[in-house]
Amino acid sequence: MGKPEANIETLWGELARLSEAGELRRLSCAFARFVASLGAAPPALVLACAVLSELEGHGHSCVQLSDLGAGPAELLGWSDEQWKDLARAAGPLPKTARAWAAQLAACAQVWETGSFDYDQPLVLDGERLYLRRYWRDETLVAQAVRERAAQVREVDAGSVRAWLDVLFASQRAAEKPDWQKLACAIALRGSVAIITGGPGTGKTYTVARLLALLFATAPEAANQRIALAAPTGKAAARLKQSIDRALNELADKVGSRLPLRELTLRMGAARTLHSLLGARPDSRAFAHHRGNPLDVDVLIVDEASMVHLEMMASLLDALPPSATLVLLGDKDQLASVEAGAVLGDLCHDAQAGAYDASTCDYVRAASGEALPGEFRGNGGPLAQQTVMLRHSRRFGGPIGQLALAVNEGDAVRAEAVLRAGEAGVRWIENAQQQHVLQLAQSGYGAYLEVLKAGPAAGAGPAAHEDWVRRVLQRFESFRILCAVRDGEWGVAGLNDAVAGRLAQAGLLRPAGEWYVGRPVMVTRNDYGTGVYNGDIGLTLPDPGRPGALRVYFLEGETVRSVLATRLRNVETAYAMTVHKSQGSEFRHTVLALPRERGAILTRELVYTGITRASEQFTLVSPAGAVLAEAIALRTHRTSGLREMVAPAAR
Ligand SMILES: Nc1ncnc2c1ncn2[C@@H]1O[C@H](COP(=O)(O)OP(=O)(O)OP(=O)(O)O)[C@@H](O)[C@H]1O
């Protein structure tokens, strides 16, 4: 181990310098200090702690010791020189992952899995070093998913096939095999299923048929408790609306053979995961957990790509073993803001399929679909319960082509689609901020027009609510998305500039913090007022109190409101980050890229931005090369989940 103590003060000095320069979170230094205070701390341990905590801030759930050996400059968003300076200050460091493991395992603050556990703050699992909380969450998710995936139910394949033929009748599959049909058959036999696919590939359409199938084949169908949930209120409302619509359409088709309208009525509203699990103010713990499990038989979770590791662990902990979990989401979208890339990790084999012989036989018997050779393989149990829908019904045109090119990392093709400027796609290159402001003026002009017209004169509360709904719906048809928060091309700069422009054009009269027409986004859950992080509302006059303002929120068709002055954690929302836009869709979406590239500007971010657009997509970029650079940069999140779920996949 050399003489590590000799370098420790130099290392603390270098860490403090990096922290003061804004290259390292204060928290990362403080965490390293805390660990060092618990026992002898050689420089390798101090350095590993600072890096681990820093990477957690970038969404990684652990650090690979091989990355520590090779130098994690890129993961940290540092230059090689910066890392070398820090490593030099630490003195001689282990060179290989194995040597790192040996040094760390010798420290009293590190629990090496398999050894006696003293509840140390750090966990060494093979060649990955974790903060204990993330190790616990990752282990819980992996174990729960493995156990669920291994639990395959006995299914009457003949009956399933007959029902699938009814539910998918009159449909000529746009592709062979019919992945939607196949997904229903696969989800029905397991206690976990993942249905992934890009926008408009029919995830909700499929899950509505899955529910009908369950209803038709479950032994005690009438008593099945079905719950719908999503990470945000908006996504939950969208899920419920789409499922209700699909089930009502189906009800007409199947008629008296299946009482589907009853099912729709019995299902109840979709909820946010926070509300489903019973979030409590000022506590990370939920009311539901394995000691007080959720009262459900089937749980459908939409927008699963937004679910972070800790939330997924809480969800799986609270789900009774007998219940079926169906995760829906687009594995290629941005991962959650918080640590983890759970859906991406769980969908490792989704593209390839990797279905084994037993799945192929079952699928053929239960759905009549034959799995082509290219999708056969030897994936683990979870791969057998995962289906990727591959054909978009909504995104056939240029927006879809653009999304596909970006997703495949083909910058040349993406630029060609953007330059062709066909059917709703436009690229403003070498743009000035003025270009975004012009788009904002015409885009937001629509809701401001309805706002200005006001509710019908002399009309009562119902007319007021109808007017509010129309203003909110118009507002939802246009949005500016940013990659970054700060600067001229960031959320803060654009929000100020857009408000100024709308005021200048006489469309708004901003006066102080709260003014009629101000759109706001909630930035923190507030259980008192019932508004949650990510909720977007509009400030409008309170019909009951002249001069007072309320913020109105739309969930599906339902309008609710809160007195403006009661909302404390909000920010203006003409422009929002792509991250915050997940789970939403706008008729016209404008994506503003910054002048310079950065670690945050990735392929997944551009793809997520494009796929928020339903009819029109405009890319605005001040510097040409940034798009191609972003497309080339993939999000990488270090985690052990994939390997824990399917150890053989290594
Ligand atoms: N097999 C099908 N036959 C006919 N229409 C379909 C089929 N599959 C999906 N659709 C239609 O395509 C549209 C998109 O489907 P759906 O909303 O289920 O997609 P999604 O993958 O859930 O989309 P999102 O990513 O936006 O949540 C809907 O209008 C739906 O009715």
TrEMBL record:
It catalyses: ATP + H2O = ADP + phosphate + H(+). The keyword Manganese does not apply. Its EC number is 5.6.2.3. SMART domains: AAA. ATP binds at residues 197-204. It is an enzyme of class 5 (isomerase). Signal peptide: none annotated. It comes from the Bacteria. A helicase/nuclease that prepares dsDNA breaks (DSB) for recombinational DNA repair. Binds to DSBs and unwinds DNA via a highly rapid and processive ATP-dependent bidirectional helicase activity. Unwinds dsDNA until it encounters a Chi (crossover hotspot instigator) sequence from the 3' direction. Cuts ssDNA a few nucleotides 3' to the Chi site. The properties and activities of the enzyme are changed at Chi. The Chi-altered holoenzyme produces a long 3'-ssDNA overhang and facilitates RecA-binding to the ssDNA for homologous DNA recombination and repair. Heterotrimer of RecB, RecC and RecD. All subunits contribute to DNA-binding. In the RecBCD complex, RecB has a slow 3'-5' helicase, an exonuclease activity and loads RecA onto ssDNA, RecD has a fast 5'-3' helicase activity, while RecC stimulates the ATPase and processivity of the RecB helicase and contributes to recognition of the Chi site. Belongs to the RecD family. This is RecBCD enzyme subunit RecD.
